[in-house]
Amino acid sequence: MAQLSGISRSFVRAAMEAPFLTREEEHGLALRWRDNQDRAALDRLTTAHMRLVIAIAARFRNYGLPVSDLVQEGHVGLLEAAARFEPEREVRFSTYATWWIRASIQDFVLRNWSIVRGGTSSAQKALFFNLRRLRMRIALKAEGDPSVDIHAEIAAAVGVQKADVQAMETRLSGPDVSLNAPISDDESSGSSDRMDFFADPAPLPDEVVGEQIDGARRTEWLRSALTVLSERELRILRERRLSEEGETLEALGSKLGISKERVRQIESRALEKLRKALIERNPRFATSLS
Questions:
Q1: At 11, which helix (H) or strand (E)?
Q2: What confidence tens digit (pLDDT) does each residue in 51-103 have?
Q3: Does domain 205-289 have CATH number 3.90.79.10?
Q4: What pTM does this model have?
Q5: How far apart are CA 17 and CA 97, in angstroms?
Q6: In a 3-state reduction of DSSP, which class is residue 115?
Q7: Measured over all CA atoms, what is the biggest interatomic distance in the chain, rounded to whole angstroms?
Q8: How far is the C-alpha of 210 from the C-alpha of 51, rounded, in Å?
Q9: Tell me, which fold does domain 2-112 have in CATH?
Q10: 80, 100 contact by CB (below 8 A)
Q11: pLDDT digits over 167-185, tens only?
């Protein structure tokens, strides 16, 4: 009874005192429920198997979840089994219901054991529920032999990758920790939350949008101001200032058939013209260009 501390004693006693059903009684009740939706037949069928639900739920009590919740989920599986049971197959209802009860409880444990959702494939479920048992069995079999790769042995036994075993072992090594939990238990020290150490260095969304809008405006202003330049001034600025690999004065002078000093003079004059045009079109540029 201590193992089922989350369940009332009266409930457990009622489940244990419920009469067993003979094969014929079980078959008749299953037919009445399937063919006539007889609620009384369903109640009697499920009540007789609640001890099975409690027994299976008790096997999962070490996952830190209330046993009462496990029993409730097991009862859901029991009802699912009753809805799907086919009496003509000559299989005892308890044999058929065991799978559904265990599957329902396992799904509940996987959903609630951690806020981080793990794998839901059959192999991942088998790894989650059998990792500790397999590790202990393989470790005892190896008897301290350092050449035995326990993770690889477990992966082969379950049918998953070795990396999956290592990841699952990490998940099972400790409980979830809230990012809002304080780093220290000392309230007088004004300890920071864990969240304080996960600051995102990226700009805020409004800053990103604002920069995009301002950048588009600046590009349009620049494109408009460039119209005041002559063709040669525009070519010099493009090759000297607006290209990824800025051309040298000497190389650009050779292309244009003028001296590098003349290129420098034209560039300087073009920049001044461009500056005045930008200020005339938008006075706010006067501050940023000064």
A1: helix 9-17
A2: 999 999 998 888 888 889 999 999 999 999 999 999 998 899 999 999 999 99
A3: no
A4: 0.52
A5: 19
A6: coil
A7: 111
A8: 65
A9: Four Helix Bundle (Hemerythrin (Met), subunit A) (1.20.120)
A10: yes
A11: 777 666 666 566 666 766 6
